[in-house]
Structures are given as structure tokens and as C-alpha cells.
Design a protein that fits this description.
- The protein is mainly alpha-helical and about 180 residues long.
- About 70% of the residues lie in helices and about 0% in strands.
- It has 10 helices and no strands.
- The protein has helices at about 5-15, 30-45, 50-55, 60-65, 65-75, 75-85, 95-105, 110-135, 145-160, 170-185.
- Helix 3 crosses helix 6 (about 75-85).
- The protein is globular and about 40 Å long.
Length: about 180
């Protein structure tokens, strides 16, 4: 592990310290998600700046960290990647935010797309683990199972439509496998 990645993990853990995952009967610290996203990116060979951005991918929209602060602490590339994967306006209705996010995703640089895919892989895996170990996770989502699954399916279709040379095939396969596992729950 490099100092950049360790610093990113430390800052992300501090910034997300009060947040929990959406599990119904246990309090799983949010750092579990951060670690999951970084592990997915590392498994597929991404560099330390992408791993650091993966660790920090939710700090702008969930913790109020600014792009300038990220640039100062982690450099322009990390800050740019985090910005590329952050929702721009959380005041919008859920469906509109997700639609805009998907439209931005397909135009994003490949490293930003990889972070978004790793985020979804960890979310899908978390839902499956929660269902197996802790009870029905769908009650924890404001939009419910059907709307969430529609969103995941739309994201997977967008990934499938990307130029296959832009991203590791194994990363895209992991997304397909994670979504397939969730469909059978």
C-alpha cells in the first residue's frame, strides 16, 4: 500500500465515521463499502490514484468535502475522478439524479467509469450478503427493490454498451455476475 492510498483510506474512514451501510439488523460501518470498492479496483489492476479516488468516491456527495480540498490533499487527478463519479445535485428527485448520473457515466473517462462499476459491484454484493446473513435489505431503500433493480439493470446495460477496449473485461464480467446473483434472491 502506498502513502497516497493509506491517506485516502484514513480520510475516508474519518469523513464517513458516522455513516452505516443499509443493513436492517446490524450496524455495519460505511468503511466496509470503501474497502469493498478499493478491493474491486485493486483486483482489476488499477493504479494507486484510482484506488485512492475509489476510497474517496462518496465524500463529496455524502460528507460535503470540496473538490479543492481533495485537490490539496490528494492531487488533481484524484479530485477529478471523485468529481466525475459524484452526483452533481442531491436536491433533485431520486429518479432524476440517477438518470443524470447515468448520462454522465457514459461520457466519463474510463478510470471514473471503473470506480462507478466497482461501487455498483460492492453495492450489489452487499445486498446479497445482507440478504443471506442479516435479513431483507430491500426495506432499507427508500425506492424499494423494483426501482433499485431497474436502476442496476440500466447501469449494467450502459456498461455493456461501452467500447469494450475502455475497461477490463473482467471488471465488466464481475458486474454482470454480481447482478445475476442478485436477480435470483
Amino acid at each position: 500500500m502506498t502513502p497516497l492510498l493509506k491517506r485516502a483510506l484514513d480520510h475516508a474512514a474519518v469523513w464517513h465515521r458516522e455513516q452505516k451501510r443499509k443493513y436492517p439488523v446490524v450496524e455495519v460501518p460505511y468503511v466496509s463499502h470503501i474497502a469493498g470498492v478499493v478491493a474491486v479496483l485493486a483486483r482489476h489492476g488499477f493504479d494507486d490514484e484510482v484506488l485512492a479516488a475509489g476510497a474517496l468516491h462518496d465524500v463529496v456527495e455524502d460528507c460535503g468535502v470540496t473538490r479543492d480540498e481533495l485537490t490539496r490533499l490528494f492531487g488533481a487527478r484524484v479530485a477529478d475522478l471523485v468529481h466525475a463519479v459524484s452526483e452533481e445535485d442531491k436536491s433533485l428527485p431520486w429518479a432524476e439524479r440517477k438518470s443524470r448520473y447515468l448520462a454522465r457515466f457514459v461520457q466519463s473517462p474510463p478510470d471514473a467509469q471503473a470506480i462507478s462499476i466497482a461501487d455498483k459491484i460492492d453495492n450489489l454484493t452487499s445486498i446479497a450478503v445482507c440478504a443471506g446473513d442479516h435479513g431483507d435489505p430491500w426495506s432499507m431503500f427508500k425506492e424499494g427493490k423494483d426501482r433499485q433493480m431497474e436502476r442496476f439493470e440500466a447501469f449494467a446495460r450502459a456498461v455493456a454498451a461501452l467500447d469494450p477496449q475502455r475497461l477490463p473485461a473482467s471488471l465488466c464480467a464481475d458486474l454482470r455476475d454480481s447482478l445475476a446473483a442478485l436477480r435470483v434472491l
